[in-house]
Amino acid sequence: MSTPMTPSAHRRVVPGQAARGNGQVTAAPSGVPQSPLEASSRRSRWTVTLLLAVAMLWTLVPLLWMLLSSFKNRTDVTAATPQVLFAPTLDNYRNLFSGPNNLGPYILHSVLAAGISALLALCLGALAGYGLARTRMHGKKHLAFWIISTRMAPIAAIVVPLFLIFRGLGLIDSIPGLVLAYLTFNLPFAIWLMSAFFAEVPPSLEESALVAGCTRWQAFRMVILPLTKSGLVTTFVLCLVFAWNDYAFAVVFSGPNSQTLPIAASQLVTQTGIDWGQLTAIGTIVVVPMMLAGLAVRRWLVTGLTLGAVTGE
Q1: If you compute the radius of gyration of the chain from its CA atoms, what whole number of angstroms results?
Q2: Percentage of the chain surpassing pLDDT 70?
């Protein structure tokens, strides 16, 4: 008499699967097909990697070509066929710092105007941003939006009023005039950005400092500012870059005694032609310092842009 087989005995084990003792069939570790979710995740990673590579090439190739062109002579830089292999020369840089094209005063004016305006924007923006983040008032969000909306205004709409004011105050063709002009656009951005960073700091830390005997200023200086170091660095670097690269304010408010590097670059474009060698050399001088500054503070810059700048305050 044959023994009847249970339903589990009729279960067929598919190759690549292993049967458990309770009759359940599970997939073996090897040879298991990838789930749709894992396949989609892998495709997403490849897509993101490809997009980042394209964006990097789109950004770095023009900069690298500008750097290479700055070491070419006039024949190589204007050749119909791009010259990748060439004999490098420093003539373009020598010509920028000799004779009537001396670039030294322009660099000094850019450093003073951009550096002072960025430092003032950081100091005033930190104070105003702290007050905006900690003050409880009706319509605070509307006030914050009004502050940043002044940064959104087109430069052409405010150049004429500012020019009339600066001419009346004797600030045309002066470093203080450029500093104030840059500050009009950098300060709203600094206030908005710093208020977002301060909003990330729990108010209980300040309350603990006040209970310990600190004044409001001491709590701000010794507790809050160290905790927002990434925000301070981010704000300063961004304001510095905006002022360093500005052309619209510089062309209106500057003069022979205060012209900056963007103005010097525009003077190489004349009716008789364009000196591409010197133009790429001055472009390298303008770009490289800001790139080095960003790389030097990249740790704080990345932290600041990914934390405080996205709070929505």
Answers
A1: 30
A2: 82
